[in-house]
Write a structure and sequence with these properties.
Four copies of one chain form a homotetramer. By secondary structure, chain A is of the alpha/beta class. The first copy, chain A, contains twelve helices and 14 strands. In chain A, β3, α4 and β4 form a beta-alpha-beta unit.
């Protein structure tokens, strides 16, 4: 708890029909440390006004475009100090840049940018701005993912040898991007999405999760990235072999044509002494399988968890939080860091964003071509 | 979405150390239809101020006692119009009464009152007030519980024959009420809790859930209600046989001394043609087992669900919501009803509150004495 | 392993159409310590011959009735020394009696007899005969049930406070006993089944399992035993409150009209420090939930299990055994005891059989009448 | 059921300390169609005699070596007609060859031979012999695996697009082959095991399972096959990208250094309309996830299953069979084919054996080298 005023938030994107915009709004406000104050929710004036009304934003602070909004809010004494970027990918860079250069902090939806070059440039802009930049790799906000990271870092499993991360969805099994499905539409369009389809949408989540939990960067990869649905330009299915610094082998699977799969993200990490399994479908649990004894199941909200994991739960064990709360954990840590009461160390930043873009570009470019190096160090 | 101002909320209770107070606050505000504006969070002035600061409530609207608060807010043009009651049980009646009589709506935590007499009196007060009264039987806010109710009501299972509802916790396995545990302390004290311990705390949830899903009232019961931990006055373990109108048999199990159990609420309903199982530990799923074909598993957020269940999810299937969102569903429906855009039909009311109190008093009084009638009709 | 000849087995019942007969045959022979040598499989000569041929029994040792068989086999130098009784219930007593009095050992399917009087008489006959009598309460043969018993006996959970045992089936949801279903037919007929329907068929399993794991007898019960399907004479649904010696409370649920349920037997035992859960649907696992630490999952076939549990697995962990192997564990222990290389301590005997009959008779007689004592001590 | 004499079986290998030998013995005899009659169980005379005594084999039919056994049994009127080969891999070829050339049928444990050349030669020998050759890819014997194959073959899922098969064990996480562990010892020795370690031991199971369920051969692969434990010669961890005829993409993961994993084999197959998941840990279930409706869970032993799946269960749904019974299904089908009452179509044969060897050799040779063709057609 804190006695300072809430951090004032402006949203770019997130108007009616958005999936992730409302999630940002709910997550940001959940803990009372952030309050939505302004927005450029939609280019459609009616929709823009509708969003503002629904979310308690004053009509005069629902702006027609993000540049106007940033200028106006930055100039106000009581203006927004944080901009959340929830547009399609191709706008992430320019909105983030504009906000940072106006002296505002930025929380961006993933991926960080449209491509690696933009991400590297944005990295410089963040540094130059002196402002904070966060990236909503939401799965790192789950308590038991944070516990998993702690367990690996503590060495409980011994040296890591094997990593399997799988993120399977089925919702793009049909070419619904040609059927006026807004969510599918921009994702299937390289101009808005970049060179990655599935890999940029959810592959980066899997990749980031693996590096987050393992605590070591991927150094090489061997990719099979494909557009399975006929007529689709961007990939919708990815199977990638990995090699981590330190020698651990891995497999990353991401798919949006695994028909019937909902949103199944699972990671398994095996070390010398045991393995851990976390699955989004049972996200309040973390299973530890040991070479030499009974399995253990750890439950979110329990007092025996690490401080990092405990801090990521609001209510006692057995009272499940979920996706919005995981998202909110990232916002809360970010707001605390801005307020000076935390280092925000668990909030993904632009380095992670650049890392994701390097992964996407490398895997897409090298698909089918055997093993290639993945540049960077996964900071 | 709506273009009206948010409903202004005042909280009675919920200061630092409260479990359920913050849940009410988060749930109420989640969908932007309600905003916390005032409170009498704690009798301790420092704690009261701390809660107000943390939650963005103006210092002058953090009141030292609920009576002052109700009077002041009712008198303000921009005053709170909804009071949430999150105190120990013994204050539910008087706070609810005061708020209603001041023309404010009330959302109360369960159980409705300290005893049945109060509940019946409160029922009259609600009617006389012309205001709305809601009760947070949170489990009825879960999408798949609402789907379960629809499935039974549609007759998919045929006539209901058997109901098993179990709510097992273990956190009162030791006499922690004697160790300065605030949550345990008031629950173990008849003056604050009423005649029911475990049965009043979680048994009423199980009871309400069963009647909610089955759609028929319990007419008779045969109870074994006991204080298992030595020295405890109120019950901590309950096993109750049920008979529903229409003839279905049932078993209700509620315990707070099932050591190791976290918050495991499960209901199974069997009809002539099949059965359903919902478990809080996997709350996004509803399993249907059929006499004549494969089992089915329905997932929250799916387009094939009933309208009632779909309306209770904010984000697509595979993105789990949780306890706070279930709570928020009750608040959202309640706010909509107040705003005139819904009938609030799924929001538990004072009739359900009275029903719960009748259940508690009957079961406690008749424990060990065989079968007795449960008065009322479970409206 | 042993260098003695296999124990020769004769089966009474088990001809074509039998469910449990073939299970006895497969289980008895699984470990090579017992060999089927003779049988009175069916009163229908063609079926009798068919069973003999299918199972490698010499034609002249397929007898037309059990009395002839017992006399002939007892007289042969190489005759059967063990008789397995797999008839409908009403014949259990007379076949067991005849075999024992002819000097043969007996393995009987449950329940032991048609009623308590028979069971008590059979108990005397067993003692007088000097032969061994075993009863296939098959669930006590599962490795993780034996582990559960060890865990409770060792005091790992502290004193037991609460027991929930549920055995739900749905296959009698329709009156298929009137549709020429052989399995349903005799079970629905009091002349063949006794006073218990569901309670005698599967309720006794649940009851025996509870006493086996808890290690204390049930002293009192309060029963709701009913025939739910119209026109049925014997019960098909049972809900019973229990009180164990030592004070633990319990609930026993058994049903054959839980439509859609397959064969779901689950037991939960809660002590002062933690609880255990075993479910037949995941029979290779035993879950321990602790008041003060992470949950544990123990896996059948693991080297960290108790000697009793380890002895009940044939193959390494992760290679699931099942119902037949659990049955075989009882036969194997029984054969070892007969051969003098084990005390057969885990094989249910006539005392457990009498106990089951007392349970059935008491619960049926007292259904709806509140709490009554259950005689006996659950040896 | 059948009125012919049981098929007489001789075992090569399987003496004390063997894991898979006793499984073959139990599985072969389970359904009374096969009876163990002879064996060359161990080169150690005492162990050989011990096995014979334990399993009811006459002392004079426990032979000191397999060549003597084959000659003697082939010459006897009542000799064994089926030889089961349960030795380490390097002997599979010569024992199988000797048995076939002596006019006996052969059931071999996997892999078929030490290398592809031997497998191709054995294929010719099988054809020339006019005898039957079966291979115990045991997982194809599970009812729900057979159901999965039927579902794909029927086109219920639409065209297959994606396959994930994972077989994770952890028991070789330490170099126990240097600690006198017999099972680990020969597996780690190329002279006894061939060029494949993990891939030859369990990778072939995963590979065969995938082709069995998908019904199409793997045409290309890209492998990462490694010896992770220091000092180990043969691989213990394999991650392989697959391409099936027809275009489906796949991933095959096999590991024996996934510490804590027991014997976790899982296959997921996604088509245009839905996906299926089968996991050995819950082998009695088959989950179908649909693009357009609720998930389904099919249960072994249910009357709604395909004939192929129903035939693979002995007892009703809810009464779990397991590994031994899956093994027994292969033996039963094999015995029926020999007896002329079935085509043995589901029994893996030498073609599948050769296929497995091609997979092992190709993957090992091409590990790290990108995509290569896999010869053969996966008959």
């Amino acid at each position: 708890m804190s006695d300072v005023s809430p951090l004032r938030l402006a949203l770019v994107g997130g108007g009616p029909g958005s999936f992730i915009g409302p999630v940002h709004r709910m997550a940001a406000e959940l803990d009372s440390a952030i309050r939505l104050t302004a927005g450029a929710f939609s280019r459609d004036p009616a929709k823009n006004a509708q969003a503002a009304a629904a979310w308690g934003v004053a009509p005069d602070r629902a702006y027609g475009d993000y540049r106007t909004m940033i200028a106006a809010e930055a100039a106000r004494e009581d203006g927004a100090r944080l901009v959340a970027v929830v547009t399609p990918n191709h706008l992430h860079f320019e909105v983030s840049k504009a906000a940072l250069e106006a002296g505002l902090h930025v929380m961006s939806d993933k991926p960080a940018t449209l491509n690696l070059a933009e991400a590297l440039e944005l990295e410089k802009i963040v540094v130059a701005s002196g402002r904070r930049y966060g990236l909503t790799y939401v799965y790192t906000g789950y308590p038991m993912v944070r516990e998993a990271r702690e367990i690996v870092a503590r060495g409980d499993l011994g040296a890591v040898r094997k990593v399997i991360v799988e993120y399977s969805q089925g919702w793009l099994s049909r070419p619904i991007e040609r059927e006026d499905n807004k969510q599918a539409g921009w994702r299937a369009d390289p101009a808005q999405s970049g060179v990655g389809g599935c890999i940029g949408d959810i592959g980066v989540h899997a990749f980031n999760l693996a590096e987050f939990v393992v605590g070591a960067p991927v150094e090489r990869l061997c990719a099979d990235v494909a557009a399975v649905v006929p007529g689709r330009t961007l990939d919708d299915d990815c199977n990638i072999l990995l090699r981590f610094a330190g020698g651990a082998r891995g497999v990353l699977i991401a798919s949006q044509i695994s028909a019937g799969a909902r949103n199944g993200l699972t990671i398994k990490v095996y070390g010398e002494k045991g393995g851990l399994i976390w699955s989004h479908e049972r996200h309040t649990e973390l299973t530890l399988d040991w070479l030499d004894g009974p399995s253990q199941v750890l439950h979110a909200g329990s007092p025996y968890l690490s401080a990092a994991a405990q801090a990521a739960s609001r209510i006692p064990t057995g009272h499940p939080e979920g996706f919005i709360e995981a998202f909110a954990n990232i916002y809360r840590d970010f707001a605390a860091a801005i307020a000076g009461s935390g280092d925000g160390g668990l909030v993904p930043g632009i380095a992670h964003g650049a890392r994701g873009m390097a992964f996407v570009e490398t895997a897409v470019a090298a698909s089918g071509a055997g093993w290639v190096a993945l540049q960077g160090d996964g900071r």
